[in-house]
Design brief:
By secondary structure, the protein is an alpha/beta fold. It is built from 42 helices and 23 strands. α31 runs antiparallel to α32.
């Protein structure tokens, strides 16, 4: 980096905007600026750093801690060098050495930490500080499973839709289904790009419409020139002269060539339909072949053909006739062209009105249901924050809070900001007058890495923000295009590709160089195109027997085999590079634009003995081992479910072979048993031990939470060991991780307290039906510290990722697969939105959908969106190429057409940029993995060591004391009581009378209806007691915390039910169903527990006296402040 850039970026008194290329050290700059802010005396709580993912926020915190720790412990000379590198003069660095030494301790011990958040995390903090009269719901729980939440809230909306006779909503839905078909109609409402996903933008749009006096139902109409005029085809057909000319045209064309005769036939058929008063759409479709192409464009030849001219010469005035024919054909071509534009605009207007009608009704229901459940989603955070910050009545209050709290703002990856987020920021920054003490602003990003348009990110905002900060905050701007990451060869390829003539004129690329201070440990590097894989020929069975030879979709089968062959070629190349360059598996990164061919890649890599980690987002419940566990739990509910029991028997738990299962089936039929369960229940059956196992688990399922039940089963069957023995070597770690992840899932769902096994299974089915990205991820493979180069630990695996998932990562070798395609992969439906930089809200919102002809009303808006999409396509390629440190390899599938290379594909761009092909490929060598039996014999696996040597009893398979149903009910009541107390205090109720009803508590907290009445009574007894006002509703309460986690001196994590701060005291409150007698053992435990709480709180807050109290569900109070 240049000295001036570093000096300005790290100067705590300057506002700065940095546009820096990939691999240039943007994160280093951000962390360095934070360090300089701390060195200058800024308090951690005065710094707000915003980034775009939780992972990035964690990485920033981690990097900051690493640097601060280093500054605290490194030799003084090294410390001074570190400070000088961050823009200080040597004399300034020496003077700040004492300050730098204590920064780490100060930051860690500060009770108000430095705020490193995502936008949504920051919005959540803002909303918690909103005044009660702001109109924003308070105390809502954030749900990140948007699709499942949406399904839950709208279930009764969909159920009631068919019963809404003659209502606008039902009529609108029927129109959508008629025009778009059911799937597209539903996607347009509740899909990943449907109405509900743009709720925050819609509310901003409504606000803008109100300001401009515009009706949102007229979004398409206001753009159209056709909705206020009559159908051009009707006008033309109603004119006798025009109609006569069309008839004459048909008669003349009959004497022309073969095409002319076809045109004549189309015209005559159209005229007949018009005469019989057919619908104008049918008339137009019949006339169309004579004038327009299939794509509704003018025919290339509308003038008289040579054959037609010859026939005209036999008639008087042939030249005049030819001119008349040409004029008539061009006139009617224009009429039909205009007719289809008229139809398209009317269709778009009708679909838009239906979309808005349904969407508004659906959104109203969705919001009301969420408020009843006391939950919110991420779009609510944006919508509510925008409502607060852009509402003048409340904005001043919040802006004053922000002014008092934050003095320094840092934003990373600004190119990923969406207009709503920018407007919220702008409302804060605009509140400062010219003479006021404004916060410093540090903004960094790279427009070339903006790849999140599907999340409404707008790359145009970068320049908008840059101009704003230069004008209002006197910000310095620096552009930096020197990378530390890419090798010279990779850098040359990037420069060559992004200087091709077809790069959009607006594309923000400048030639990149290599940072002269960067270490070059890999030499020049290399970039090659691997040979394209030809499509195989698929043989179709003629006269096939459907029972023997299944139907094969030859196109899909060919593409699958072609993709598998590509993966085999890549695998061979990885083996070659690994051997030649002394690389490890972890040095390779495979990048994909989508996960379409992921299964083929995984299979090819397994066949070649290559361990890989692939995108596992939402894949846990689709794995075989998770399905086995669901089948087992289903058997515990319904043992006679033969399908589930067969899966359990076939699984590694009991490992029956196909032959054994077939024998069991034959025995069931021959002995006339209703199910496998009835068959194995007989004591003389060879599988009776399985019956006894399952029977004991059925009994446990009645008493234990699902997690504890599974934990018993895992231990009782040595389940992990069994799966490890049967899993292929390259999948063993992943299989075991998935089993652990399933066990963890049982604990995560409702805190492991699902009241019944059937409800747990039902919840799993809901999750499986939901969006894939919201489903539980597969487990992370175990890491073995002493693994060698051939191990299968997760740090020694080839990574397979989508380009979006790889953003921010780097790798020694990068391989781009399936690059020889120019298909956009865009969805059939979505939302067309025009939100220009600088505007407070969108100027246009309407649904988009596939089909031709396109409505001309919104063509300009579509063109703008297409231009942004084209730039993002280039951005994706830029991000992919710049992940590589040493080398990039480009792979793809050959086209079946004459041109093997698809025009304008990524492969084509690299080829035109001069990247050479790599043709040193022999036949693909498949390195087969070991067989299962070899793996079992050769691979050691360490599981839990069982030391118990006694004899187990089939009637009591577990030696620990089980909790009785009565004891479990008391435990569940205590949990429900605590949950109510936590929830209502977070809600901020003002007195006991505001305690929610039983029904509300059941809905909000998912409390068992059998417990809610007793649990609510306990809460009411506490809140309405004599001490309730002082502990919960007193005006003297300065602060309070619910369910506060706190660490004891020996490292144990403790949880205080409620901590109350008064002017001179801190009160620890602990809820219990009842208070034990002073002579009881429990009393002594309470005494010790409260003493520990007081000790911990006193260490954190020595400034105030700390007292502790037990509060019982009967309304009793016991002060426990005795000696420790």
């Amino acid at each position: 980096m240049t000295d001036q850039l570093t000096h300005d970026s790290c100067n705590p008194h300057l506002s700065v905007v940095i546009e820096a290329c990939a691999g240039s050290g943007k994160t280093w700059l951000l962390v360095s600026r934070i360090i300089r802010l701390l060195l200058s005396g800024a308090k951690p709580r005065e710094i707000l750093a915003i980034t775009f993912t939780r992972k990035a926020a964690q990485e920033m915190r981690g990097r900051l801690d690493e640097v601060l720790l280093k500054l605290a412990n490194c030799p003084e000379t090294e410390l001074i060098d570190e400070l000088v590198a961050r823009g200080l003069l040597e004399s300034e660095a020496k003077a700040l050495v004492p300050r730098a030494r204590v920064l780490f301790e100060e930051v860690l011990s500060d009770p108000y930490p430095l705020c490193v958040e995502t936008f949504h995390g920051w919005f959540s903090h803002l909303l918690k500080g909103a005044p009660l009269n702001s109109g924003v719901p308070q105390g809502l729980k954030l749900r990140d499973d948007f699709k499942r939440l949406q399904d839950e809230c709208l279930e009764d909306w969909w159920t009631s839709l068919p019963t809404r006779d003659e209502t606008p909503v039902r009529a609108a839905y029927e129109l959508l289904v008629k025009e778009l078909k059911a799937k597209n109609a539903n996607d347009l409402l509740v899909g990943s790009k449907g109405f509900l996903t743009v709720k925050a933008e819609w509310l901003s749009y409504i606000s803008e419409c109100q300001k401009r006096g515009v009706d949102p139902l007229r979004s398409v109409m206001d753009q159209s020139n056709w909705l206020d005029v009559q159908d051009p085809l009707k006008v033309a057909l109603d004119d006798s002269n025009n109609l006569g000319n069309l008839m004459s045209l048909a008669s003349y064309l009959e004497n022309g060539g073969k095409k002319d005769v076809g045109y004549s036939r189309a015209i005559n058929d159209g005229l007949k339909k018009h005469a019989h008063q057919y619908d104008l759409i049918e008339v137009a479709d019949t006339l169309k072949p004579a004038f327009l192409t299939r794509d509704y464009e003018f025919l290339s030849q509308l003038l008289a053909s040579g054959e037609l001219k010859k026939s005209l010469k036999k008639l008087p005035n042939p030249e005049q006739l030819e001119q008349q024919i040409n004029k008539t054909r061009q006139y009617w071509a224009q009429v039909l062209f205009d007719h289809y534009r008229w139809v398209a605009d009317h269709r778009a207007h009708a679909i838009h009105q239906a979309w808005v009608t349904i969407g508004v009704d659906m959104l109203s229901h969705y919001q009301a249901k969420k408020e009843l459940l006391r939950v919110q989603d991420f779009s609510d955070l944006e919508a509510y924050t925008a409502k607060l910050m852009l509402n003048s009545d409340v904005a001043n209050y919040l802006q004053a809070r922000l002014d008092a709290k934050y003095k320094h703002l840092l934003i990373d990856e600004f190119q990923d900001t969406n207009p709503q987020q920018w407007q919220i920021l702008l409302s804060w920054l605009n509140a400062y007058g010219e003479g006021e003490d404004k916060p410093s602003v540090f903004l960094v990003g790279d427009p070339k890495q903006s790849i999140y348009r599907f999340r409404r990110a707008d790359v145009r905002l970068f320049n908008e923000a840059k101009t704003y900060l230069e004008n209002h905050f006197k910000a310095k701007f620096h552009r930096f295009n020197a990378t530390r990451r890419n090798s010279p060869a990779v850098l040359a390829a990037v420069n060559a590709v992004f200087q091709l003539p077809d790069v959009p004129a607006a594309y923000p690329f400048e030639e990149q160089t290599r940072n002269p201070h960067a270490k070059n440990i890999y030499g020049d590097g290399e970039v090659f195109c691997l040979p394209l894989i030809e499509a195989p020929t698929i043989t179709r069975h003629t006269n096939r027997n459907a029972l023997i030879n299944p139907y094969i979709d030859s196109t899909k089968e060919s593409k699958a085999k072609q993709s598998y062959a590509e993966a085999l070629q890549v695998a061979q190349h990885i083996h070659k590079i690994k051997s030649e360059k002394n690389a490890s598996w972890g040095d390779f990164l495979i990048l994909l634009r989508s996960r379409t061919h992921l299964s083929n890649i995984e299979k090819a890599f397994r066949d070649c003995g290559i361990p890989c980690d692939s995108p596992r987002q939402g894949g846990l419940l689709k794995t075989l081992e998770a399905e086995d566990m669901v089948a087992l739990l289903s058997v515990l509910i319904t043992p006679t479910d033969d399908l589930s029991l067969a899966q359990v028997l076939r699984s590694p738990i009991y490992a029956l072979s196909d032959e054994q299962l077939m024998q069991l089936t034959l025995a069931k039929l021959s002995e006339q048993h209703q199910s496998y369960w009835h068959l194995i229940s007989h004591p003389d059956n060879q599988y009776h031990h399985i019956y006894k196992d399952i029977l004991s688990w059925v009994d446990l399922a009645k008493r234990l939470p699902v997690h504890d039940l599974l934990d018993h089963i895992y231990a009782d069957t040595q389940l992990r060991l069994r799966y490890a023995q049967f899993a292929p070597p390259l999948q063993k770690d992943q299989v075991l991780s998935n089993l652990d992840a399933f066990l963890a899932l049982a604990l995560d769902l409702d805190g492991g307290r699902y009241p019944s096994l059937p409800r747990f299974i039902a919840e799993l089915k809901k999750i499986k039906r939901g969006a894939e990205e919201e489903s539980p991820d597969e487990g992370d493979s175990a890491v073995e510290e002493d693994s060698d180069d051939d191990s299968t630990s997760s740090d020694a695996r080839v990574r397979v990722l989508t380009i979006h998932a790889a953003k921010g990562l780097e790798s020694r070798f990068v391989i781009l697969m399936n690059t020889n395609t120019n298909r956009s992969g865009r969805d059939n439906v979505g939302v067309l939105m025009s939100w220009l930089p600088g505007d407070q809200g969108p100027l246009h919102m309407s649904p988009i959908f596939s089909g031709k002809p396109k409505d001309p009303a919104r063509q300009d808006l579509r063109d703008q969106e297409e231009a942004i999409a084209e730039i993002e396509n280039w951005n994706l390629l830029y991000v992919a190429l710049t992940r590589a440190k040493e080398a990039v390899y480009i792979s793809g599938l050959a086209n079946k057409a004459d041109q093997p290379i698809a025009p304008n594909s990524w492969y084509d761009r690299l080829d035109r940029a001069g990247v050479k092909p790599l043709n040193e490929f022999n036949d693909v060598v498949v390195h087969k993995a070991k067989s299962i039996s070899d793996a079992i014999n050769s691979h050691e696996f360490f599981d839990f060591e069982v030391t118990w040597q006694g004899e187990s009893s089939s009637l009591a398979p577990f030696d620990e004391e089980l909790i009785s149903p009565e004891q479990q009910k008391v435990i569940d009541l205590g949990v429900a009581f605590h949950a109510i107390m936590e929830h209502v205090m977070r809600m901020g109720i003002q007195n006991a009378r505001e305690l929610p009803s039983n029904d509300e508590l059941v809905s909000w907290l998912n409390i068992d209806s059998d417990l809610v009445n007793d649990a609510r009574r306990c809460a009411m007894n506490v809140l309405s007691s004599d001490f309730g006002k002082d502990f919960f509703f007193s005006a003297e309460i300065e602060n309070s915390w619910e369910e506060l986690d706190i660490a004891s001196s020996d490292g144990r994590l403790l949880r205080i039910d409620r901590l109350v701060e008064l002017p001179n005291q801190l009160l620890i409150l602990d809820y219990e169903l009842s208070i034990s007698d002073i002579t009881h053992d429990l009393y002594q435990k309470y005494q010790l527990q409260m003493a520990t709480y007081r000790e911990c709180v006193s260490k954190l807050r020595p400034d105030k006296e700390v007292k502790s109290y037990l509060l019982s569900g009967k309304g009793e109070l016991l002060e426990m402040n005795g000696p420790n």
